[in-house]
Design goal:
four-stranded mixed sheet; binds ligand EPZ; UDP-n-acetylglucosamine1-carboxyvinyl-transferase, Chain
Length: about 425
């Protein structure tokens, strides 16, 4: 199993480019199931979750052509409308094929996701939404079976709580339903907006994506399209924190500054200088002195839960006490114990973590437990004294494209070893 070996203490300097968004690319690939015509997607990050999604589509009946800077997908017919346990258990986002399959093939069989490192993460809201659109849903042998032989009918779906992939799943299903669907309390994340853009290019009639109410007027057929995925705001945010934590001087390019606004505001309050020097560039300068600032995760446009672990690593270097509250997932503090092994002072009280700093971190052997937790360990290792060895970096490979190469190019002493 691959490891990262990191020597701490290097100040990052230079330019680091953001890749396309994993969490936008995943639903975009699922959306290719909605049409028999080819859909070409650009700026798809070459990360493990994407390869898993492509494999799932091939099993279902798609022909996937991966080029240098594009992925072209054509699904002439749905051969097997199923997402098996083997794939769903490694990647929950596989449940994104549920909506497209029911809409196009009239049936779907998708494994229940089960437990996950960051919390229970059920898909009950996706299912309740599909039922509102007329799907009949049964659960047998750990699988969800959904059927709508006569097609789905539009309806009003009000999500009990905001769900990102739930909103995406339903938007895709509703695109081919008869009549109008209204999604209330919808997720407003940029990834939802990006998926709506793609669907609109495919001929869907969608209004309001990016607000809490989305209107979808079903159409009979969707067509092929070309689309470029938005940049990955979580990757960009991770690089912004990497610059700040090393007291570095880094331009993060190819990003959408507005998408990381909540993080930028917190970092400015903590004493980091961040300027938007071009429409797609954030210039980050740390001076090695940080103040503690409390933070609570929220749905977009609030502070992303996917940047909470990285922010916690940063707060171990800040002067004072920072209270970090996780409101989206119930068990997303696994990194705290590993950070503590490196010398951080973190107390967990329910869904709050109290980080007291600054602490001098020292290199240690640590284990990556999930994607973003792994990123926080990389960040901590960049400032720790001596060598850190991070085991199980396959977690980080799920969602970060060549992170070690990108960080090494701006001066980090990081290498991959077997
Ligand atoms: C998406 O997951 C992202 N994944 C996650 O990114 C991200 O952390 C999360 O949104 C929150 O921003 C993708 O986009 C592929 P939710 P998703 O449904 O859609 C509960 C990463 O690191 N809930 O918005 O699965 C759920 O348990 C990943 O890249 C239900 O109770 O998250 C959670 O507490 C990890 N029932 C909350 O809602 C449901 O049916 C929000 O989850 C669905 C969700």
């Amino acid at each position: 199993m691959d490891k990262f070996v990191i020597q701490g203490g290097a100040r990052l300097e230079g330019e680091i480019a953001t890749s396309g968004s994993k969490n936008s690319a995943l639903p975009a690939i699922a959306a290719c199931l909605l049409t028999g015509e080819p859909v070409t997607l650009r700026r798809i990050p070459r990360v493990r979750d994407i390869r898993t999604m492509e494999r799932l589509l091939v099993d279902i009946g798609a022909i996937v052509d991966v080029g240098d800077d594009y992925v072209s997908i054509r699904t002439p017919a749905i051969r097997s409308p199923e997402a098996p346990y083997e794939l769903v258990k490694t990647m929950r986002a596989s449940s994104l094929v549920l909506g497209p399959l029911v809409a196009r093939a009239g049936r779907a069989r998708v494994s229940l996701p089960g437990g996950c490192a960051i919390g229970a993460r059920p898909i009950n809201l996706h299912l309740a939404g599909l039922e509102r659109l007329g799907a009949r849903i049964h659960q047998t042998h750990g699988y969800i079976e959904a059927e709508a032989p006569e097609g789905l009918r539009g309806g009003t779906v009000r999500f009990e709580r905001i769900t990102v992939t739930g909103t995406e799943d339903l938007m895709m299903a509703a695109a081919l339903a008869h009549g109008e669907t209204v999604i209330e309390n919808a997720a407003r994340e940029p990834e939802v907006q990006d998926l709506a853009q793609l669907l609109i290019k495919m001929g869907a009639r969608i209004a309001g994506a990016g607000t809490a109410t989305i209107h979808i007027q079903g159409v009979e057929k969707l067509r092929g399209a070309e689309h470029t995925i938005i940049s990955d705001r979580i990757e960009a945010g991770t690089f912004v924190v990497a610059a700040a934590i090393t007291g570095g001087d880094v331009r993060v390019t190819g990003c959408v500054p507005e998408h990381v606004q909540a993080l930028v505001e917190k970092l400015r309050a903590a004493g980091v200088e961040i300027r938007e020097t071009a429409p797609d560039t954030l210039h980050v300068r740390g001076n090695g002195r940080l103040r503690s600032v409390d933070m609570s995760t929220e749905e977009y446009p609030g502070f992303a839960t996917d940047l909470q672990a990285q922010y916690m690593a940063l707060m171990t270097q800040a002067d004072g006490q920072a209270v970090i509250t996780e409101t989206i997932f119930e068990n997303r503090f696994m990194h705290a114990q590993e950070l503590a092994r490196m010398g951080a002072d973190i107390r967990i009280e329910g869904n709050r973590a109290v980080v007291t700093g600054p602490t001098r971190l020292s290199g240690a052997g640590v284990i990556a437990s999930d994607l973003r937790a792994s990123a926080s360990l990389v960040l901590a290792a960049l400032v720790a004294r001596g060598e850190t060895v991070i085991d199980r970096v396959y977690h980080i490979d799920r969602g970060y494209e060549k992170i070690e190469e990108k960080l090494a190019r701006v001066g980090a002493r990081i290498r991959r070893s077997e």
